UniProtKB/TrEMBL annotation:
Stored InterPro entries: Glcn_transporter (IPR003474)
Transmembrane segments: 17-40, 52-74, 101-129, 141-159, 179-200, 233-255, 275-298, 438-461
Protein name: Citrate transporter
GO cellular component, one term: plasma membrane
GO molecular function: gluconate transmembrane transporter activity
Organism: Marinicella pacifica
Length: 462
């Protein structure tokens, strides 16, 4: 029981200290070793650190670093070229005041689906969203909720083919691709989107008399000549379309036709090529997208080398944050006491892994304050178990993939989530003024839709 207590204490401290602003890169190894000591395996601590924690951390970085690197560079180039802002501004201008919330959500969703970092999306869209709300005299306090709905939810986890890492990670555990469970993902994704829009519009109407408000911090200054300097919509969209379309074609039609028999050798670790298709296709799609942004915006980007360097540097923190959480999850899973925890989680629904998977990913995402962190810890610890259970009970592994991804975008949005804190900072607002609505659209609604999806699949198809 002391071992189980150690695991729970370690997880609790991870949540609390991450909320206090301490880096997960520092917390993960320290708290993993705390769990090791309390589990009575302190004599093996250094061995577990170097041969479990670091090996798993390195394995994740080796597999996914190219995607983090290229994704960060792509996002930085989209930002520096003005392409991200051009897309957002065009959508917002076309839809106008009468569809303000939908315009913001749609512009954020398109950028996120195309592989642009949620942080870049927030920076690009906020000035335009604030200006639109101000023009329509709508309460500014709801701007963060609209951005969160578009960037943190359906386009990040639910829609099949989304280029975010949360949709790529499950492919390695379930032998699926990024377009897993398309019908489930589309129905759930649009349900999250339109329910969230309904909620924000309802709240805006409820507080209409409040108006935009005054004395706000971080008020954006819109450059009147901005539109003339930005690339036109189609030039801005081409790189995003390249990511989406080339990834689909490569993943579905090109790479499966390659001769990959050489991978079944000692040199390549006898790897199953099916586990690499999603990663290879995403790497190639992002390379083409990066080159296209540079080619189309050569004169708009002030210094391409600076953008590339900043993008590369910006990829390091998210890579090693997530990789450290993988190492943490692997360490916890290696402890004898974890068998009791695993059995308790699996036995939430011993004949239906969909339920226990969604619970496990949501809880761990909430504890870590990270969608990718909760997803990787859960799948690193329980992924093989869920894959075996899916086979045993005849459950489509694509459902396991899609629901794991969707579940990661639920309790991750608790107040200590880094993206939530950054979004509020960008908008010059506080948890007190705006978190309730962020929580509704990026936590309560996604969790509810995910639960309903599990219920429908379980009743009618399992």
């Amino acid at each position: 029981m002391l071992g189980v207590f150690g695991i729970l204490l370690s997880l609790g401290l991870l949540m609390y200290l991450a909320y206090r602003g301490i880096s997960v890169i520092i917390l993960a190894p320290i708290l993993a070793m705390l769990a090791v000591v309390l589990a009575g395996e302190g004599s093996q601590m250094l061995g577990i650190y170097t041969q479990v924690f670091m090996v798993k951390l390195g394995g994740f970085a080796i597999k996914y670093f190219p995607i983090f690197l290229l994704g960060a560079i792509f996002g930085k180039l989209m930002e520096d070229s003005g392409s991200a802002k051009s897309i957002a501004q065009t959508i917002i201008n076309k839809l106008g005041q009468h569809h303000s919330v939908f315009a913001i959500v749609a512009s954020c969703g398109l950028l996120t689906y195309g592989g642009v970092s949620v942080f870049v999306v927030a920076f690009a869209v906020y000035p335009l969203a604030a200006a639109l709300f101000k023009e329509a005299d709508m309460p500014k306090r709801f701007v963060p909720a609209a951005i969160a709905l578009g960037a943190f939810t359906f386009s990040m986890t639910a829609l099949p083919g989304t280029s975010q890492i949360h949709n790529i990670i499950p492919t390695s555990y379930f032998g699926t691709d990024m377009y897993a469970a398309p019908v489930v993902g589309l129905v759930a994704g649009f349900a999250i989107m339109f329910t969230g829009i309904w909620w924000i519009n309802r709240r805006v109407n409820e507080f209409k008399a409040e108006g935009y408000g005054s004395n706000h911090k971080m008020e954006p200054v819109i450059d009147p000549d901005l539109e003339q300097r930005l690339p036109n919509l189609w030039v801005a969209l081409i790189p995003v379309l390249i990511v989406v379309l080339s990834n689909f074609v490569l993943q579905k039609y090109v790479i499966p036709g390659w001769n990959t028999g050489y991978l079944n050798s000692e040199k390549f670790g006898y790897i199953n090529p099916d586990k690499l298709i999603s990663i290879w296709s995403m790497i190639m799609a992002l390379i083409m997208a990066v080159l296209s942004v540079i080619a189309l915006n050569w004169r708009r980007i002030r210094n391409v080398n600076t953008s590339l360097t900043k993008g590369a540097i910006g990829s390091m923190l998210p890579t090693f944050n997530t990789a450290s959480e993988v190492g943490y999850g692997a360490t916890i899973a290696s402890l004898a006491a974890f068998t009791l925890v695993k059995d308790a989680v699996v036995n939430i629904s011993p004949n239906n892994p969909l339920i226990s998977e969604v619970v496990a990913v949501n809880v761990l995402a909430g504890i870590t304050g990270s969608a990718s962190g909760g997803l990787t810890i859960a799948l690193e610890a329980l992924g093989s178990t869920y894959a075996q259970m899916a086979t045993q009970f005849g459950i489509n592994p694509e459902w396991m993939h899609r629901l794991a991804s969707m579940a990661s975008g639920g309790f991750d949005s608790l107040p200590h989530n880094g993206a939530v804190i950054t979004l509020l900072t960008i908008c010059g607002l506080t948890h007190k003024t705006s978190y309730k609505d962020i929580a509704m659209v990026s936590l309560a609604i996604p969790v509810t839709i995910t639960a309903l999806t599990v219920a429908v699949l379980s009743v009618f198809f399992v």
